[in-house]
Specification:
The protein contains one helix and ten strands, in the order αββββββββββ. It is α+β, with helices and mostly antiparallel strands and 200 residues long. It has a domain of 136 residues: Sandwich (Immunoglobulin-like), CATH 2.60.40. Pfam families: DUF1102.
């Protein structure tokens, strides 16, 4: 009998300890936890927005996966042809590349694009691209800006035009620069873009 009571007491003791632990767990006032966040920087052809070359002078580099706009003989679509653009001239190319929103599930996105070269400005000939400075439409070469933003509805594409201004440049000058593209779920874009990108 004594052995049975000790076994029963041991079981009762374990149940009591579990009750205390669970009871204490239900009364936490503060809880701190550290979590890490990981993401990969990926190529233009595998990210959550889709960059699509539309004109032959834009293409996705097969090695880097990056969108390239190239008016030189190095362009694989026209190998060995074209040495660039003329000095003291302005070129306007509607629909050079598209930014699509086919990968975000049922969400509209706000896209911000900034050119690091003042000779390269952007616009949307369809009237759906805006200057990120003040929200004015950037819908033609005369209103093109180096910093633009726009809304891309789910399953849609916004086509981006490029304005190249070679005023003051000489033959042999070379332009390089980056076009930095950021996307935000509609409603989570930075405050500096609020109401400037055609948001509803």
């Amino acid at each position: 009998m004594e052995k049975v009571n000790k076994f029963g007491l041991a079981i009762f003791g374990l149940v009591a300890i579990f009750g205390l632990v669970l009871g204490a767990g239900a009364n936490f006032r503060d809880y701190n936890a550290s979590r890490s966040v990981h993401w990969d920087v990926v190529t233009d052809d595998t990210e959550l927005i889709d960059l699509t070359p539309i004109q032959p002078y834009s293409y996705i580099n097969e090695t880097t996966g990056k969108l390239v706009i190239d008016f030189s003989p190095n362009n694989p679509n026209y190998p060995g042809y074209g040495d660039g653009i003329s000095p003291s001239a302005e070129y306007n190319f509607d629909e050079v590349f598209g930014v699509s929103n086919h990968l975000w599930e049922d969400m509209d996105i706000v896209v911000e694009i900034k050119s690091t070269n003042s000779h390269i400005e952007l616009y949307g000939a369809d009237g759906n691209v805006y200057a990120a400075y003040d929200g004015t439409p950037a819908s033609a070469s005369d209103s093109a800006r180096d910093w633009v933003c726009f809304v891309v509805p789910h399953n849609d594409m916004v086509k981006i035009g490029v304005d190249l201004s070679a005023n003051g440049d000489s033959p042999g000058d070379v332009w390089t620069g980056d076009i930095v593209i950021k996307a935000y779920r509609l409603g989570t874009e930075p405050a500096y873009l609020a109401g400037k990108c055609g948001q509803p």
